[in-house]
């Protein structure tokens, strides 16, 4: 007669993104991307397409890759600091907020003008810099991992503000001044 023995496998520890092993690292990097894919699907259902920053004549997909490519870096930084201390857990929540804002940004910019988009990009950059300072207090390496994403946000904010300043009064011609060259 054969007997069977039940084996207890706790499912909550198998897929723990905070666990400091290879699977936890992969999950921490992949979860923000999967949330973006879900947000993209929901946006598609609602008829809202994400718009990405692609300067200097780059194709839009390059801007999308660079924007979405910052999400795994932020996820890895969160994985590196989340279990260190109370300050690490707080920095981890700041990173979750930064990732949420990074995911939401491309869906929010469609109805906005240059000035509002650049103000939103600067706000996201400031949140990112504040998060990086909190992360750096816990782990310098985690803050360095965040840098490529923050650099792309900084370029976006700089170019956006430059365009807004170049096409807004008092820096550019207004309609009352007539065409240039008169």
Principal-axes geometry comes out as globular
> Pairing-aware structural class of the strands and helices?
mainly alpha
What's the SSE pattern? HHHHHH
| Tally of separate helices | 6
Strand content: under 5%
Oligomer: single chain
Tell me the number of strands: 0
Determine Rg (CA atoms, Å): 21 Å
**Biggest sheet features:** none
Averaging pLDDT over every residue, what do you get?
83
Helix coverage percent: 55-70%
Give start-end ranges of low-pLDDT stretches: none
Task: Determine the N-to-C terminus distance.
Answer: 102 Å
Describe this structure as you would to a colleague:
This protein has 182 residues and is mostly helical. Helix content is 69%, strand content 0%. The protein has 6 helices and no strands. The chain has helices at residues 11-14, 22-46, 60-81, 86-108, 114-138, 140-166. The longest helix has 27 residues, at 140-166. The protein is globular, with a radius of gyration of 21 Å. The model has no long low-confidence stretch (mean pLDDT 83).
């Amino acid at each position: 007669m054969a007997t069977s023995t039940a084996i207890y496998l706790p499912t909550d520890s198998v897929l723990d993104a905070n666990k400091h092993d290879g699977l936890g690292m992969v999950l921490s990097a992949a979860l923000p991307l999967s949330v973006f894919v879900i947000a993209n699907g929901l946006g598609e259902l609602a008829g809202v397409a994400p718009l990405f920053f692609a300067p200097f004549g780059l194709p839009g997909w390059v801007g999308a890759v660079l924007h979405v490519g910052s999400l795994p870096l932020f996820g890895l930084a969160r994985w590196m600091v989340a279990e260190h201390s109370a300050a690490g857990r707080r920095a981890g929540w700041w990173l979750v907020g930064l990732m949420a804002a990074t995911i939401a940004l491309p869906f929010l910019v469609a109805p906005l003008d240059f000035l509002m988009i650049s103000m939103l990009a600067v706000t996201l950059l400031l949140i990112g810099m504040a998060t990086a300072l909190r992360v750096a207090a816990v782990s310098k390496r985690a803050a360095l991992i965040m840098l490529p994403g923050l650099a792309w946000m900084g370029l976006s904010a700089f170019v956006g503000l430059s365009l807004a300043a170049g096409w807004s009064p008092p820096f550019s011609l207004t309609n009352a001044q007539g065409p240039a060259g008169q």
